[in-house]
Amino acid sequence: MSTTRPYSPGDRDPEPGVEPGGEAEVSTARQARRLSFEGESGVVPLARDFTRQALYAWGWLPAASADRRAVAEDVLLVVSELVTNACLHADGPDQLWISCDNKVIRVEVSDRGTGQPAPRTPHRAGRPGGHGMFIVQRLCLDWGVVRAPGLTGKTVWAELGAPA
User: Fold this and answer.
1) 135 within a domain of the structure (yes/no)
2) pLDDT score, position 111
3) Which of 25, 48, 81, 135 is the most buried (most CB within 10 A)?
4) For residues 67 and 57, what is the distance between their CA atoms, to the nearest angstrom?
5) For the segment 98-108, what is each residue's pLDDT rounded down to a tens digit?
6) Does 14 fall in a domain?
7) 65-88 burial, b if ≥16 CB within 10 A, otherwise e?
8) Which domain holds residue 84?
9) Could you tell me if 163 and 101 are in contact, meaning their C-beta atoms sit under 8 angstroms apart?
10) Domain with 105 in it: what CATH number?
11) Is the Cβ–Cβ distance between 71 and 162 less than 8 Å?
12) How far apart are CA 158 and CA 11, in angstroms?
């Protein structure tokens, strides 16, 4: 179930503890990574590969159980859906941010689009397309959209439960 609550100020402070690491930045204070899509092509597979590498680095993969494997696959699917939506509806993503603690993994995709993502209502399972936000809503603990005042664009975020 999603409340689609906006991202609370102070929920995440992306700058402290983040050290440069090539295209991706890796946090030493907690488990967090950021990827810029500037000048990149093939951003959906790039985002999935980046996320998979983070999951390996954080010990989520290789999965020791079917439940842990399912959670990792859900994270990869949510990343794919959010990045694909940015490609289809917002001229592509600007950045992917992934962070996790022992309970929650948070995925954020920023873009310059003005649209408001929402699950298609009513959801029609037999029709092609239009399932991305429905999938995100079903797999995630919560998700929402944040807009910075006075700036074009948005950040779509989603939170999934960490594996037990």
Assistant:
1) yes
2) 95
3) 81
4) 18
5) 999 888 999 99
6) no
7) eeebeebbebbbbbbbbbbbbbee
8) 20-161
9) no
10) 3.30.565.10
11) yes
12) 13
Look at the chain and count its residues. 164
Name residue, tokens 């810029």: 36
Global confidence as pTM: 0.80
Residues 2, 148: Cα–Cα separation, whole Å: 21
| Percent over 90 (pLDDT), the chain | 52
Q: Is residue 7 part of a domain?
A: no
Q: Report the number of distinct structural domains present in the chain.
A: 1
> Which residue matches tokens 């954020």?
108
Does residue 6 lie within any of the structural domains?
Answer: no
Specify which residues 143 forms β-bridges with: 158
